Amino acid sequence: MDTWLAGLPSAGRAAVGGEAVTWATRVWCALDWSAFAFPPVIGRDYWWDGPPASHLALRSRAEVRVGPAHLVVLGGQRRSTIRSELSVMALVESLRARGVALPEIIVGWWPDSGHFVRVTVDQAVLEEGVATVARALFGGAKQAAA
Predict the structure, then answer these.
(1) CA distance 115 to 109
(2) How do the domains of the chain map onto residue ranges?
(3) How do residues 94-145 score in pLDDT, each as one tens digit?
(4) Which pLDDT does position 144 carry in this prediction?
(5) Are 108 and 82 contacting, i.e. CB atoms less than 8 angstroms apart?
(6) Which of 112, 28, 22 has its CA nearest to residue 76?
(7) DSSP assignments along the chain, one per residue
(8) pLDDT bracket for residue 90 (50, 70, 90)
């Protein structure tokens, strides 16, 4: 991202800076920070790398991670695919957990409208994550062949 930002003209960097301030303000104002017993993890993407021969990597993002609960700040219109998107995040977090507690709840939140979608992580959600990745892989292969 550093290279990308450095390559932007000054107006582009200003737009990115404005969006970053807006995002940070929304997250800061949305939560009661004094209620956390431990500081949450803020804005870190986590990656799971598949076996080397697979050339597959999956990314999970969450703006705020507090123990078993993860908050994902969303923009734009609410999408019918959001549960599938959140299930992929749950899948990635579960694949990379190794000795760490798995997420129990992932919340997708649209601050502009106040709407949210809550996904309780269970076997069905993880299976939906696998199915979503498979659709993306096989759908992409079909489009490339066409």
Answers:
(1) 6
(2) 1-30, 32-145
(3) 888 776 677 899 999 988 888 899 999 999 999 999 999 999 888 855 544 4
(4) 47
(5) yes
(6) 112
(7) -HHHHHHS-HHHHHHHHHHHHHHHHHHHHHS-GGG-SSPPEEEEEEEEE--GGGT-EEEEEEEEEETTEEEEE--SS--TTHHHHHHHHHHHHHHT-TTSPPP-EEEEEETTTTEEEEEE-SHHHHHHHHHHHHHHHHHHHHHHH-
(8) very high
pLDDT one-digit tens code per residue, 29-79: 888 888 888 888 888 788 888 888 878 888 888 888 888 889 998 888 888
Long-range contacts of 56-61 (CB under 8 A, 24+ apart): 58/88, 58/91, 58/92, 58/95, 58/133, 59/92, 60/88, 60/89, 60/92, 60/93, 60/96, 61/89
Q: Which residue has the tokens 């996904």?
A: 119
